[in-house]
Amino acid sequence: MNGSRQIKSALIKILYWAIRIAAVPLLVFYFVYRAARDHRYASCFSERLGGEPMSFHPTAPGSIWLHAVSVGEVVSAAGLLREIRQRSPSIPLYVSVTTVAGRAIAEERLSALVDGIFYAPIDYAFAVRRVLARIRPSLVVILETEIWPVLYREIKRAGGSLLVVNGRISDRAFPRYRRWRFFFEDVLRLPDAILAQSDRDRARYLELGAAPDAVHVIGNLKYDAEPSSAPSPRVIADLMEKLHPQTIWIAASTMAGVDREDIDEDDAVLRAFQELAPSHPRLLLILVPRKPERFDEAEQKLRDARVPYIRRSQETIPPDLALPCVLLLDSIGELASLFPVADVVFMGGTLARRGGHNVLEPAACRKAIVTGPHLENFAAIAAEFREQRAVLEIASVQELAGAVGSLIDNRELREDLGARAAALAASKRGTTRKAVSEILHSQDLAVPHWNQLTPARFLLWPLARVWGAVSSFEQRRKLAHARRLSTPVVSVGGISMGGAGKTPMVDHLAERLSETGYHPAILTRGYRRRSIETSILVEAGELAPVSFTGDEAQIFVQSGYAHAGIGRNRFVTGRLLEERYRPDIFLLDDGFQHTKLRRDLDLVVIDALNPFGGGAVFPLGNLREPLSALSRAGAFIIMRTAPEREYVGIVRQLRALNPDAPIFRARLHYRYWVDYRSRQPHHALSGPVAAFCGLANPASFWGTLRSLGLPPVYHWAFDDHHHYTCTQVERLAAQAKIHGSNVMLTTEKDAMNLPESTAAVLDHAGVQVYWLKIGVRVEKEDQLLQLMAKASEWNKSSARSHSALEDSR
Known about the structure:
It is a single chain. The protein has 29 helices and 27 strands. The protein is α/β, with parallel strands linked by helices. Helix 3 packs parallel to helix 4 (100-109) and helix 20 (502-515) runs parallel beside helix 22. It is elongated and about 100 Å long. 47% of the residues are buried.
């Protein structure tokens, strides 16, 4: 059975590959045609081939990629993204769209919520892999009904989670999918979960081959749509003030017919308006064609019918314009802001055989809604609205004028219909919260290895094998000749390159040990320090220049919780510290690979957003040594965690590598801002800010700023441990001013690397710089401290005997 399924799956992949190869000329023709008709389609065309805007660089790993096809899905996505941001603000979020209109709405409504917006790649492996390798998602969320075999397979192949949220299969689409069931069956078994809108949608997914235990009904996200709080466009407000309409009728998202025998809804609406106008002289119709390419066509219809009108895009209102008249809304994204001013809403796509559009936005605004009979795209919603008599449904175009007129003339009927619609919409809320819980749970399960998707993987693979073999050999050799200090040593290190939060963790542990009566010292290499001394010793509470210590070691020096020993040879530096200050415990900074020095406990910091360095050893991934090295860890600390998350996937992999080591969770937290010039703390900042940093993972700093309510208007990223020049500081200050900010934010480490002339440059530019003092919160911290104390006491006598042996040699 499994063999036949595998053969079938292989044949389907070959078939889809052949179809895509054959479709290349058609795709080229389609792209040229679309670009010729709309220049916006051509402006970002590289994104459809897997390219990304430069603003994405460098992207943070562990992101969530949400795909929303067009306008309706983008509107649904807004609530999801807000809830994710609230519950887990550090997660990078990216949104892809397919249509130009969807891109416009996404940039208007979602820009403040996400890290990037782009066009989804075509369903070819090279394009999909480019996107996955660049934004490195741990989870991809597909909204509604997008089934792309290559995209689905590449996500799962990369170890990411895949969710279909708000899943539905319309009456129009279902027969087509059912005819191709043999093709979609395997693909629909790839998502970790399909969160369907209704029981009918669940049944359809199951009929198409989805796994029964993966399809769940959670409701429709569209019910959670909030009434728009955006103000009406100025020209529309001016129009209202000039004309003072008594009644406003919105014909929303009108569409052309499917064929010549079908209804053109613009024609139907204009005929109804002409019927109503004589008896309703204070009537304003707001006509909103669904697609931008119909704006000019709708205007021509208005001219031909000799109906007074104004286009939204006009700068001035004609002095002779009078009611009854028409406002042609020739813009994208403004319809929702107009629903609150309407008296009656006709929802387009329902008289033409188009399957209808979402009625929930006007319903949330408590508006009386008129629809035609075609609501197949929203069958479950339509059934509930019919059952509650929350819409006025007409059977044909001839009934439109009468239905709208009856609601205009009968205020009680109009208000009752609007109240029923609003009550029904409110009663179905809560889907967003359930969907976000599933999204975060699915991200918990994922441990992606996105680095293996780069085009150069086959060239880099041999180098990675050599690196892994050499690093393993070197670690065994160093362990065999490791030397022990008299004082217990606790190492805080990592398995991957880049920032995982090791320095803040060492600083925090030094503070906690000092508070509990220990006399700690920190051993650190002092990376990129400029001094030539073999070992530098700094007593707790004393200061030393950054050039002597390096930026990260300077953090320990300025904190003053522990003595600091800085030098490449940690054993020699440790012996000097023992002789001079007699500490009772050493913290070995970034020491997991420094096996020349014996330690009593190895604490390994794991970055929750990028736990295993892409799953491969450098240069294929970011691992310093193979994951099997984690078997020698004494305990794990998962850093940058969110309080409500379990991180099941990371824990599961750690347990497979090391069944016995305790696992702790920790997160960075904001303590206060420090004015660079005065060195005085500030506990609150506001207003537009710019930001810069030189970190291995700069996106983590942007995420921190966003979680603090300080999204930068512009930001710059430099290489890790970057030493700034006076010229660079001048340019940073100038760019901040250009973007409307007098404040620049940075990290404590970067503040250490600013030149001495920085204060004078800032004074001249009129710009202030603040750096962020961060702390660490460790869950079950008492247990971690007890583990460190136990390891220290257990090996103290052994350490001293080994030290005596070393001295005798």
